[in-house]
Design goal:
The protein contains 6 helices and 10 strands. The chain is α+β, with helices and mostly antiparallel strands. A two-stranded antiparallel sheet has the order 1-4. A two-stranded antiparallel ribbon has the order 2-3. A two-stranded antiparallel ribbon has the order 5-10.
Amino acid sequence: MQISLSSNAVEVLRQVQGFPSRLGQGIARALDRQNQQTIGHSQAAYLTGPRPSRLGVRTNRLRASLTASQAVVEGGTVSSTIGTNVQYAGVHEFGFDGQVTVRSHSRNIFRTHRTGGGSVFDSRTGKVRKQKARAISLLSGQATVRSHSRRMIMPRRPFLQPAVHDSELAYSQAVSRAIEKAWNGGGS
């Protein structure tokens, strides 16, 4: 992401000799606050809603797993990340088109039977009407499916990249305010 600083913040950075620790700590606090807001925006705008345009919620696992690292100040650099430890997050964020291996597993086998479908006298109307046949499924056994490969196509439904992109202006403003405040001797 690219952050654009206010003209006052740029002027402060020009005047600073080195990188005072209060400046780095102020920027880190601003990034930490903004990261939490960006996570909330991602959860509300991109991880909630109808498929296929939004990822939607199945188990809430992915949405609950979004976290931000504590911003770290090292020399003249302040770094921070937003991410998730859920294994399938990357497939949804970037999409996937390729071969996958399906592990060996058991599958239930069902047999379908039709019931009903005869004529029935309706005492309310005094007429004979035809009854619709219904299909019922009965479990008849299990089969083992051997391991095999198959092509998987998963469309791209990003949830982090657009949230960060939507928040670029807010990040720029927050970092600019932090720089100006640190320069003027203020805390967070």
